[in-house]
């Protein structure tokens, strides 16, 4: 499961720098903090989840 979450984190980081395009559904799923945009804050939240500091 951690590897899958790491892959999601990698996709989010690629989307943030324009290396991949997300569908609307992927954007909704990647917006883990629910502020309406995919940003470094979502990536950071996923990193914290991976090390057990927060829940998603
Ligand atoms: Ca967000």
Q: How is this structure best described in words?
A:
With 56 residues, the protein is mostly helical. It has one domain (2-50). It contains 3 helices and no strands. It has helices at 2-16, 24-30, 40-50. Helix 1 (2-16) runs antiparallel to helix 3. It is globular. The protein starts with a helix and ends in a 6-residue tail after the last helix. The model has no long low-confidence stretch (mean pLDDT 84). Calcium ion binds at residues 31, 33, 35, 37-39, 41-42.
Characteristic terms for this protein:
single chain; 56 residues; mainly alpha; 59% helix; globular; binds calcium ion
N-to-C order of helices and strands:
HHH
Mean pLDDT: 84
Outline: globular
Decide which structural class fits the backbone.
mainly alpha
What is the number of helices? 3
Indicate how many domains the architecture comprises. Answer: 1
Span from first to last CA? 13 Å
Uncertain regions spanning at least 5 consecutive residues: none
Q: How many whole angstroms does the radius of gyration measure?
A: 10 Å
Bound molecules: calcium ion
The total beta strand count reads: 0
Strand content: under 5%
Major sheet attributes? none
Q: Please estimate the helix content.
A: 55-70%
């Amino acid at each position: 499961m951690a590897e899958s979450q790491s892959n999601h984190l990698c996709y989010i980081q690629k989307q943030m720098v324009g290396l991949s395009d997300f569908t609307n559904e992927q954007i909704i799923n990647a917006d883990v903090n629910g502020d309406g945009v995919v940003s470094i804050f979502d990536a950071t939240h996923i990193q914290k989840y991976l090390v057990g500091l927060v829940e998603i």
